[in-house]
Structure formats: structure tokens, C-alpha cells
TrEMBL record, chains A, B:
One protein family per Pfam: Aldedh
An annotated Gene Ontology molecular function: L-glutamate gamma-semialdehyde dehydrogenase activity
One GO term (biological process): L-proline catabolic process to L-glutamate
Coiled-coil zones: none
SUPFAM superfamilies: ALDH-like
Annotated ranges, domain Aldehyde dehydrogenase: 89-501
Superkingdom to which the source organism belongs: Bacteria
Species in which this protein is naturally found: Nocardiopsis composta
Name the record gives this protein: Phenylacetic acid degradation protein paaN
GO cellular component: cytoplasmic side of plasma membrane
Length: 555, 555
């Protein structure tokens, strides 16, 4: 097979990525700063223009279903997007994907990695366009949409390619096997090994992080030789439509079947995800969303390897601190960022009823609650600044839960409406904090997705850690954090987190937040609790997507 | 943590094992030759004496259930073994295993690997004892029992340790993560990563390869920090009882809880495997056996990662050969070895009705069948030699299927009884070969475990390959092989095998047989067809047994 030009072009990047996943050190190939110095003087304007050009038109995607267009999105900032997407049936999608799979499965792993990196590189160059698309589908504020929907998502995609390529090429592709014999010549066999994909990968996207949560699966599937059908959330199609369009362009330019990547847009009531997930040709399903549908997929899509990220009850244990103001500031930002609509936002804050020791003296649980509420209020006091990280409420469900939050306990902080300076119709809300006692596990023991957190009074840190362990083991979590000045408590928290199977952040007071994870270094999820079947990304996220198959003959 | 003495002792072996799994070259740390030159002058006699000493007594295993003894084995060679094993209830087993898990999970991965290698090393030194135990439970002939039940099984165990240790230690355990900031000092975080096990691993053994099929799971579980409950087949307890005893001895000597490995012997009607498999504490299940129970486990043990090896329809496509006699000899041996009671024995031999080209001229399908029957008959003409690789029929089910084989089609070779020169009561049979047409997929499309093979007349090699592809994709297979002098046919066979997800042997004529695979180089199973969920051993066999869990704090 001819050496892959695309692979050679991106080889250094891939090698650095593999080094980074193994070393877990800081590394960032796609700059997160939306600065003209990084992305070029005209990049911001060009990106916005490209986004505007999509509005009210058929999205330029020439694939099955292109004759039947559907419009399903409306921006949480109030804009009717009016973009028409191809709507194809399951049969058409499966047939086209399976046809593309015959050659993609046989494409050299280096070339597949090269194609993936070229796609990511082109998407990276369009990060401003993507930022607008993500902002106006997820409701994320612009800078967050740029970072989380752009470079950070791209890095999570590259990370998956690095794992996949490393795992596939880390084992010999051919070997001359020579077994000595007691008498005479050795037995000699020529053996060939290839990584054979499972088939079609179905990637079911979510409303809030359309690219970030989909890219690891999309690129893991592609790099391991599977074709991909991307089923976006009906509220957040544009970011994945752009992704599919770029992928198809790169595939076609390089002599591959563009149907290796297909978009499966649908009306909310179509339920095409469930149809596709049960098709025998679909051998991998990746899903981010509700526990209900995730569990259904795991129970029913038995012909497929199913990877899910579902609901969880993220926990914070507050024991003591030597940086009270910084702790409050860090927590306030974590609760406010994207109005708590992150699967990583803390929900349950466990605090001893008796209070905590701080550098500002002992604080009762009531004082801590009031101080946290004050920190959030101060953080959000200027609507222009506040909307810069609050973003907008993504959907009706979040809004409804927020309205009901106060009734769940004793309000510590009431949510408020914020008028967005640029988008009068945007639905913007500040977070709610509700006080509960430890015995109200019926309330805090399940996820309340959105800007709703609970301040839970406990008998002490031992009980806090026990509740962290139990609630996370039972309902899952993507994040946990602890504040303590005691090495013993930190050690106990690490043990509790390991037992519950959740990653732990300790004493975050600066510009690192529990709801954020860095690609190549931080694991997102663990696979060790009910919130996710594996990490983005770890070996388990990759290994089930292909099999090694060998042939052997006498030499 | 103090450096692990056991790890240092076995480090060179482990490093060579990791090199071998990555390079796939020949490597063998445990010699397969039962020669006094290798294992020592007194080894054979000592091993036999050790085996004899078990008979008619309580097996020396001090664990839960030791007060309640059961006897369930009878040698296929006629000896009543009369060994009493502890019989514990699921609750006792789970409680003891979970208690041991608390410290084993926290044991350093190097120490865990060291413990595994010490266990394997001691088992290796007792290979003669193990050979007798395997012979008199599985029915394998002595030399095969020595090799497959001893060194080959040990190597498969070591292989799993190599994968596990490599996967766990291939990623940084700690890192100082430094993110440059536009202004000022970098953000610096200290991060720690650990591989956290899932919990208790249940390993359900089989009758025919009690150690070979169990060791990969047992050692993969142990090396990834899980505790193990070994549930042997009631007909084949002794080999796994010896294994558990050695493991517990090594664990205890090195300050670990011996209950890290427990034996769950049962009466056939106890169905303790099903009980244990559904317990929430059991987070990994490995099973070798019937498709029925394997499917049940996959559908019902939802709390666990389930790895199964089930039935399959192994295929041989005969197209042409330039070594007719050698091909017949190789096939005859593959059909006869252990009376076809290997999950890797060829079942379906596809031959064009019109015949095949050979170095002895064109042979019709009828001639080929007669010549194959002749080759088997010649191979088995001397009962003393024949019983040396036929072994004995392991159980009633195999015997019943063999009795009914002739009625399935047109007999090409009738099975015969053989009187074993040493064991008058041994049930020894020669293989049956039955001729069928390609349209009798109702017969050859399912597994007939035992010495039963079908000679299937096809319209040509194209149809043969199509049937290989279809039957393997539908019902699974652990092996496939092809005979052809045509590079195009070999290429097409490789494509068919890759599509069907089965490993392929090509033109085997010498001392390599399709039913044998070499540890560190050959994959056993693929995970890409219904016969197995993954290979012994590939990354997918390991990755689901642990999760990486991290903690991070400001530096």
C-alpha cells in the first residue's frame, strides 16, 4: 500500500498526541484562545459570515435524504435558525454506510488516522464558524462555545485517534514466527494481523455539547475503521452538520467514500436513534443523554458495543479550607458556568452542619451557604459579564426543573432572570442553591440537570464522604471534589472517590474548575460508576471497536 | 510503597512477555516438553505421586466451605477420583472475596504482576501433577494434558498478565501538569492516576480445558486488581483446585489475603454459577461453554463485564493443493486430536463437488473423502499410539452426539471404539466424517461438539468461501483454514475470514495444526463473531476489567 500522504502531513501531531496520552502532561495542538493573533485577523468575521450564510437555507450536504429537508432548531438566544437538513430513513442510511464500510474497513490504519487529523485540522480552522453554531444550538456563551465546541472538542477527537492508532499499531502487523524443534529445522510461519472494524458506528449527540461529546466517538470509530452515522439532537444539528460536511469533503478529496460519515437529522418525534440502534449492521452505539434512553440502549442494542454517558450526581465535600474566598469564588464559577448545564457541574455540596474551619475562622453551614450565595450573586452582578459565561437555557426541560427547585428544600439562593444585552429573547437564568438535610436522599440522590445545586447538611466529613461514596456508586457522577486542609481527609476522599469510581479534584481555588477537564491529561468519566461506561478517552473506550484478525501460513 | 520483591524476581520474564505480545514472535517461557532434561529427573514420578495422593481424600484447601465436602469427578479413563472439595454458598464466597478485594485493589500493579508470575512459576514446576489432574478430568491424553493443561495454559495466563500490566503501566501514574498562561505564571496541577479494579471476577471453567480456558481470565482479573472466584466444571475440579491452592499459598506467603482467589466447587445441580453471576458484587464474568448459558450470562449479568467463549462452526475450505498427502495427514490429525473435543477442531470441510486439483492429479470430492477417511484410519491404526492423542471421551453428551452422527448424512468414516491399552474402562472413540450437500445448512450450520465433521459438497470454491463467511458470521467459529495453490483464492479466503471475523490458517501441512494456537503470537478467538466476545488475549479482553481514576490538586 502506498504511504499515506495525509498521515505523513499530520504524523508529528499524532505522535505528540500519543506521547501526551501516555505521559498525561499538558499539551494543546488546537489553541483555545479566540484571538486574531492565533486564528488570523479575518477569522472571527469570516466565521460569523459563514454561520450567517447557513441561516434560513438548506444546509449544503449532498448525501442520502438530501431531497427531504427538515428544520428543527431554534437558538436559545431567540434566533430562528431555519436551516434545512437532509432527512433520510434508516434503510437508506444503513445501506450507504455499509457500502462505504467495505473500502474504509480495508483502508490502512495510517491513512485512516491521516484522514481523521485532516478533518480535525480543517474543523479547527473553522472554529469561529463552529462557535456560532454551538452557541446558537446549545445556548453556551460565545467564548465557551468557541472553546468547548471548537478546540477542546477537537482535542478530544484527536485524543481518541491517538488511542486508536496507538492501540492498533502497537502490535506487530506481520511476523516471521520461528519455533525451534528438538531435531532439525525450526517451524517457520508467516503471520499477518489486521485490525478489523465492527461495522457501522452510530453516534447519538446531545443538546448541550453537540461536538465535545460526539467527537471522541466519531473519531474513535473512524480511526478503527468503522463508518459513522451521526444522529444529532434535533435542537443541535448545525455543529454536527458542519462536522459531517468537512469530514465528507476530506474523505472525497482523498479518494474515500464520503458516505463513511453520514448525518441522520430527524424530527424529535422520529425516534430514528432507536431504530438505527437495533439494526444488525450497527455494531457500535455511542450515546450522551438521559439515563432512561442510555439504559434502554444498553439493554436492547445487544448486537452492538454500547458506550453511554448518562445522568449523575456530582458531589463536593467541603471539610475545611485555608483559602475561603478563593474556594467560594471557584465554586460560584463552577455553579454558574453555562448555567449548570454541564454533565460535570457540581450538584451535591456536602457540608458539616456544625460548620467548617477556614482562614477566616469557623463558618457554620448557614454562613457557608450565605457566603456561597453571595459569591454567586457578586459574580453575576453585571449582566453583560454574567451572560458571557452563563449562556442561555438550552431547553424547556431545564427551565421547568429550575422553576421547581425552590420547592425541593430551603432556598439558599433563588434563581433570577437576566436580560441579555445582545439577545432580548434569550432565556438566561442564574443558579439556584437549595438547602437540604442528609436524610433527603430522595431529592439529592438523583440528577436535577441544570443550574440547581443542593447544600446538604451532614453530621461531619465522615458522613459527607460516605454519602459521596454511596450516591455516586448508586447514581453515578462525572466529577467529585473536596476541600480540606487535612491530609488525612484528602486521603480518605481519594479512597472514597476510588471506591465510588469517580475522578476527584482537590482544593480547587484558581483557574481550574471541577467541571472542566483537559484533553490528553484528565479523564472525563471513568466507566466505574453508573454515569458512563468508559472514559473519554481510555483504552476501554477504544478496544471494543475493532478486533485483531490474523492469518498464518508456512514460510 | 516498597519495591516489590516478587516483581523484581520475575521482571525479565514479564518484560519479555510484553515484547512478545507486541512483536507476536515465537517465545516460550514454560517448556512444553515433558522431558526429564527440562523438568528434572524426578519430576514425572513426583508429579504422579502428588496426583495419586489426592485420590479418595479431601483436597487440602483451607477456605470457606471447607467443612462441607463434595465429590463430583470421575475420570474419563475410568478411575473414580473421589476427591472432596469445599462447597461454599454464594454468600460466603462473595463476603470472603469482597473482604480480600479491599486490600488487593490497593496493591501496587507491580506487586500484583509479581504475585501472578510467582503463582505461574510454581504451577509450572508442578506441570506433571497438573498433567495427571487434567488427563483424568478432561480425558485428554497424557502428553496433551501436560502441554495444553500445563505450559501452554501457563503461557496464556502469563500473556494476560503481560497485557494487563502493560496497559496499566503504559500511562503515567503521576504528572505535574503545567499550562502556560498568557500573562503570569503557568497553571500547575499535580495529578495522580490509578487503575481501579471493578470488583469480583467470576471465572466459570469448562470440562475439556479446565486450565487453558480459565487462566487468561484468572490472571487478567488478578493483574488488574480484581479478586477471583473460580467456579470449575463439576467434572473438572482438580486442576483448578490445585491452581487455587498454589495461588492462595503464594498470596498468603507474601502478606496478601488468600481469599483473593477462591474455589467455588459445586454439584452439577447447584447452579451456583448463575447465582454468583447475578450478584451485584460480581463485576466480571468469564465463561467457556455452551452458547445457551453464555447467551444467558450476557443477557442477565448486566452489572458485570461478561466475556464468553461459546459454540462455533469451524470451517475448512479445500480448493487445491500441491501437497495432497501432507494436507490429508494434517487434517486427519486435526480431526483426531483429543477426539475432536476442542473448540478449535474443524467441523465443516467445504469441498467442490467437481473435485480439486492436487499434486497427485484431480481428485473428486468422493475420492477426497475416501482419502481423508483413509488418512484418519491409518493415523489411528495402532491403538497404543492412537490413544496417545485421541484421549478419552469427556462426557456423555459427546458420546450421544457421536452415536447419532451417522444419521445426519452419508457416512464417509464411521466412528469406532478403541480399547485403551492402560485403561480398560476408558471410553475412546475415533472420529466420524459425514458427507452432506451444501443445502443441509440445518445440520452443519450448528455446532456438533465432539469428533464429528462434515464433508460438504459445494458448487465450487466461491460457494465454499461464501458458506464459510455466512456460517461463521451467523454461528461463530474459533478457527478457519483454507487449502489452495492459488494466490487469488488465498486472498479471497483472507477477505472472507476477515469479514466473518475469524482467524485463518493457510495450507497447513506440517507440524502446525489449525486447532492449536501459540501464546503471545496467535490470537485464540477474535470477538468479531458469535463464538467469543474477545480474544485470548487482546486489548479488549483486558480493558474492561479496570478503570483509570484520577485525582488532581494545585501544585
Amino acid at each position: 500500500m502506498a504511504p499515506s500522504e495525509l498521515y505523513e502531513r499530520h504524523r508529528a501531531t499524532l505522535e505528540s498526541a500519543v506521547e501526551a496520552i501516555r505521559g498525561r502532561h499538558y499539551w494543546s495542538p488546537y489553541p483555545e484562545s479566540p484571538s486574531p493573533k492565533v486564528y488570523g485577523e479575518g477569522a472571527a468575521a469570516a466565521g460569523e459570515a459563514a454561520f450567517q450564510a447557513y441561516l434560513g437555507k438548506d444546509f449544503p450536504l449532498d448525501q442520502v435524504g438530501a431531497d427531504d429537508r427538515i428544520i428543527t432548531e431554534r437558538s436559545p438566544y431567540g434566533l430562528p435558525l431555519g436551516v434545512g437538513y437532509p432527512r433520510a430513513g434508516a434503510d437508506e442510511l444503513i445501506a450507504a454506510s455499509a457500502a462505504a464500510g467495505r473500502s474504509w474497513a480495508r483502508t490502512d490504519p495510517d491513512e485512516r488516522a491521516g484522514v481523521c487529523l485532516e478533518i480535525l485540522d480543517r474543523i479547527n480552522k473553522r472554529s469561529f464558524e463552529m462557535a456560532h453554531a454551538v452557541q446558537h444550538t446549545s445556548g453556551q456563551a460565545f467564548v465557551m462555545a468557541f472553546q468547548a465546541g471548537g478546540p477542546h472538542a477537537q482535542e478530544r477527537g484527536l485524543e481518541a485517534v491517538a488511542y486508536a492508532h496507538d492501540m492498533i499499531t502497537g502490535y506487530g502487523r506481520t511476523v516471521r514466527w520461528e519455533k525451534p524443534q528438538r531435531r532439525g529445522e525450526p517451524l517457520v510461519m508467516e503471520k499477518r494481523f489486521r485490525a478489523v472494524p465492527r461495522g457501522i458506528g452510530l453516534v447519538i449527540g446531545c443538546n448541550t455539547f453537540p461536538t465535545w461529546n460526539a467527537y471522541p466517538a466519531v473519531f474513535a470509530d473512524l480511526a478503527t475503521g468503522n463508518t459513522v452515522i451521526v444522529k444529532p439532537h434535533p435542537n443541535a444539528v448545525l455543529p454536527l452538520a458542519i462536522t459531517a460536511a468537512v469530514a465528507r469533503e476530506v474523505l472525497a478529496e482523498n479518494g474515500h467514500d464520503p458516505d463513511t460519515v453520514l448525518l441522520a437529522a430527524e424530527r424529535a418525534e422520529d425516534r430514528i436513534a432507536a431504530d438505527l440502534a437495533l439494526r444488525p449492521e450497527v455494531r457500535i452505539v455511542d450515546f450522551t443523554g438521559s439515563t432512561e434512553f442510555g439504559d434502554w440502549l444498553e439493554a436492547n442494542a445487544r448486537q452492538a458495543a454500547v458506550f453511554t454517558e448518562k445522568a449523575g450526581v456530582n458531589a463536593v465535600v467541603v471539610d475545611s479550607t485555608d483559602a475561603y474566598r478563593a474556594m467560594l469564588g471557584n465554586l460560584a464559577f463552577s455553579l454558574s458556568l453555562y448555567s449548570g448545564q454541564m454533565c460535570t457541574t457540581p450538584q451535591n455540596i456536602f457540608v458539616p452542619r456544625e460548620g467548617i474551619d477556614t482562614d477566616e475562622g469557623r463558618k457554620t453551614a448557614e454562613e457557608f451557604g450565605a457566603d456561597l450565595a453571595g459569591a454567586v450573586t457578586r459574580l453575576l452582578s453585571d449582566p453583560a459579564k454574567a451572560t458571557g459565561f452563563l449562556g442561555a437555557i438550552a431547553n424547556r426541560g431545564v427551565l421547568d426543573r429550575l422553576s421547581g427547585a425552590a420547592a425541593l428544600g430551603e432556598p439558599v439562593l433563588e434563581p433570577a432572570e437576566v436580560v441579555h444585552p445582545d439577545y432580548a429573547e434569550a432565556t438566561v437564568r442564574t443558579p439556584a442553591v437549595v438547602r437540604l438535610e442528609a436524610d433527603r436522599r430522595d431529592v439529592y440522590g438523583r440528577e436535577h440537570f441544570g443550574p440547581i445545586s443542593f447544600l446538604i447538611g451532614t453530621a461531619g466529613t465522615e458522613e459527607s464522604l460516605r454519602l459521596l461514596r454511596e450516591t455516586v456508586a448508586e447514581r453515578g457522577a462525572l466529577t467529585a471534589s473536596v476541600y480540606s486542609t487535612s491530609p488525612e481527609v484528602l486521603e480518605a476522599a481519594e479512597e472514597a472517590a476510588a471506591d465510588a469510581g469517580v475522578n476527584l479534584s482537590e482544593n480547587l481555588t484558581g483557574q481550574v474548575f471541577v467541571n472542566q477537564s483537559a484533553a490528553f491529561s484528565d479523564y472525563h468519566g471513568t466507566g466505574a460508576n453508573p454515569a458512563a461506561t468508559s472514559s473519554l478517552t481510555d483504552p476501554a473506550f477504544i478496544a471494543g471497536r475493532f478486533s485483531f484478525i490474523q492469518s498464518r501460513r508456512h514460510a
